[in-house]
Specification:
Blueprint: E1 5-9, E2 12-16, E3 20-23, E4 32-35, E5 38-40, E6 46-54, H1 57-63, E7 78-86, E8 103-106, E9 109-110, H2 116-119, E10 130-131, E11 150-153, E12 159-161, H3 168-171, H4 177-191, E13 198-202, H5 206-217, E14 221-225, H6 229-237, E15 242-244, H7 256-265, E16 271-276, H8 281-290, E17 296-299, H9 313-318, E18 322-325, H10 331-347, E19 354-359, H11 363-372, E20 377-381
Parallel strand pairs: 13-14, 13-16, 14-15, 16-17, 17-18, 19-20
Antiparallel strand pairs: 1-2, 2-5, 3-4, 6-7, 6-11, 6-20, 7-8, 8-12, 9-10
Helix pairs in contact: 1-11, 4-5, 4-10
């Protein structure tokens, strides 16, 4: 990490050189730098120097005006960093006391832990929810997003230790894509065990490829559908047994129906788990067509407004189907994500999913690259 001078006066942490963040002012406006020389850490809070952040598709959608977002805001919610200052009583999600120097990842959400939703296990839908990279920047929580040199991690966040050997390019996306996939697979496996099952993954972006690897490593036979040839090719690197092209027609030999038929002829079971990671209405319709009797369709990708989909309830009733939405995750899922990546990055090319890396000051250029580039993620390195 960069050399810096840390001093503490009461609850105030002073950092030299001053931490800074890039603030988005609204659609069509460039990011502006904001210097934050002092941070008041409350009990259970952390000040973390960002090692690497990655640009999620939701960041791109916000900047392009494709999803609503407050302004001004410090975007970014996928990052890994090192603790430089600790508020009284700060602990990891599992209760380990946190000290300066620890390498950590943290949840996208800040939860109270006490409301009715938190008590039901839906901490990511807390009544008083705050979200890194999504909430309007305000006094007292200026360092609130990952596109910054430092982040003030608030009490109520799930904080997970990250091993020193894990590449930052692998660890950074864990706090969004990997943890969300862990939550989706947890929901699916509660309905249909993954070992020995046929799992269909629709979409081979960051989440889809991660789901392919995690389901394959859990013992599933995974089929991936994506309209982009390069993504279909990449799916094999993450364990896919077969791939389909939704652009050629459902019943074509290389279409989803044709590939499922060939898989069944080779002895594979009908898909009882379908993960829809693309957010495409057409993909959702394909999911309902492809899932087997008594199966589950888990929706992960539909996080921005899209076209409505006509749904015949008879299909759900006669086929005894379950449709489940998963948005964000619990602290348990973030721990699962980091634990999984600790080994999986050796056997699957997770590091290759992050393409070009930009300095923090060139965030606008990085967002343009993320909107049109070939890699699922673009990196932001605040240290250069």
């Amino acid at each position: 990490m960069t050399r810096q001078l840390i001093s503490e006066v009461g609850r105030d942490v002073l950092v030299r050189p001053s931490p800074f963040a890039m603030v988005w002012q609204g659609k069509g406006s460039p990011h502006e730098a904001l210097a934050v020389p002092g941070v008041a850490l409350g009990p259970g809070e952390l000040l973390v120097e960002v090692e690497l952040a990655t640009i999620c598709r939701s960041d791109v959608h916000t900047v392009l005006g494709q999803r609503e977002g407050p302004a001004p805001v410090i975007l970014g919610h996928e990052q890994v960093g090192r603790v430089v200052a600790v508020g009284e009583g700060a602990v990891t999600w599992t209760g380990t006391p946190i000290v300066a120097g620890m390498r950590v990842a943290w949840s996208v959400t800040v939860s109270c832990g006490n409301c009715d939703r938190c008590s039901r296990g839906l901490t990511q839908k807390c009544r008083t929810l705050a979200r890194y990279g999504h909430d309007r920047v305000h006094r007292g929580w200026e360092l609130s997003g990952g596109f910054a040199s430092h982040v003030q991690v608030r009490a109520g966040s799930a904080v997970v230790l990250v091993g020193e050997s894990m590449p930052a390019r692998v660890a950074a996306p864990a706090s969004c894509a990997t943890a969300t996939v862990a939550a989706a697979l947890e929901a699916a496996s509660a309905h249909a065990p993954l070992r020995g099952a046929t799992v269909l993954v629709l979409g081979a972006g960051m989440s889809g490829l991660t789901a392919t690897a995690m389901a394959t490593d859990a013992g599933a036979h995974v089929i991936v559908s994506d309209p982009v040839a390069a993504r279909r090719s990449a799916a094999f690197d993450f364990g896919a047994a077969a791939v389909a092209d939704p652009g050629v027609g459902y019943l074509a030999v290389t279409g989803l129906g044709g590939v499922l038929a060939a898989s069944a002829a080779a002895g594979a079971a009908e898909p009882l788990v379908v993960l829809e990671t693309s957010g495409s209405p057409a993909a959702f319709r394909s999911a309902l067509r492809a899932v087997g009797i008594g199966g589950i369709v888990v929706l992960v990708g539909s996080v921005s407004p899209g076209a409505e989909v006509t749904l015949d309830p008879e299909v759900l009733v006669r086929n005894a189907l379950t449709v489940r939405g998963v948005h964000n995750y619990s602290g348990r899922n973030l721990q699962q994500a980091i634990d999984y990546l600790s080994d999986a990055w050796h056997s699957h090319p997770f590091a290759d999913l992050v393409g070009e890396t930009f300095p923090l000051a060139l965030l606008d250029d990085a967002l343009e690259c993320a909107a049109s580039g070939p890699h699922p993620r673009v990196g932001i390195d605040p240290r250069v």
